[in-house]
Specification:
five-stranded antiparallel beta sheet, four-stranded antiparallel beta sheet, 3 helices, alpha+beta, Hypothetical Protein Tm1070, Chain: A, 10 strands, 199 residues
Length: 199
């Protein structure tokens, strides 16, 4: 009988551990992160965040009927982990969005300070409100990084890191963006490039 009790207790502890792990596992298809570096330095090139819509949410429609559209909810942090700007940019199915770091993602910071390094987070959403995302898969991207190569500037490009979006992180980003928009009275909102003006 003791063996059955020990086995039952072990099983309960194991199930509690599995449940705790499951609660910390988020969706890796809707969330990506990257960094920016050497922004807003004289003579340095402007980095660019590029996002594509793979058309995953498209449905069968006749030509000319838009569907499968998504929005990239973008959150730009400085190196003190403070949200400086947020916005939600439209990306049509099979479309390309390009956002320049200096002129679009850091041109209107909440604090008014000039930012040089930080973090950019992107949530794939079916709606255009960065304070209330409706998660939908399908957005992927790359980021160019400006590197200081002693006497010149070098540019590299890497994929955004697919990341684990848990509900607490989603809520924190949305709430921080809401505060930024409210407190900024126009500051703290990044701008979006129309798709036809990408390059």
């Amino acid at each position: 009988m003791k063996k059955v009790g020990v086995l039952f207790l072990t099983l309960v502890v194991f199930m509690l551990g599995v449940n705790a792990l499951a609660q910390n596992v988020g969706d890796k298809t809707v969330y990506a992160v990257t960094y920016y570096s050497n922004a807003n330095y004289t003579g340095a090139p402007d980095a660019v965040l590029r996002i594509i819509n793979d058309g995953q949410t498209s449905t069968s429609q006749k030509e000319g009927v838009p569907n499968g559209n998504s929005w990239a909810a973008i959150y730009v942090f400085d190196d003190s982990q403070e949200l400086q700007e947020c916005c939600s940019c439209y990306v049509s199915a099979d479309g390309l969005l390009s956002e320049w770091v200096n002129t679009q993602l850091l041109a209107n910071p909440l604090t008014g300070k000039v930012n040089h390094v930080g973090v950019i987070k992107v949530i794939s959403s079916s709606g255009d409100d960065p304070t209330n995302n409706s998660l939908v898969p399908g957005l992927h991207g790359t980021m160019t990084h400006v590197q200081n190569a002693t006497s010149s500037w070098a540019v590299t490009e890497t994929p955004l890191a697919d990341s684990n979006l848990v509900s607490a992180e989603q809520q924190a980003l949305q709430q921080s963006c809401s505060f930024t928009i409210t407190l900024g009275s126009g500051a703290g909102v990044c701008s979006c490039t129309p798709e036809d003006d990408d390059f």
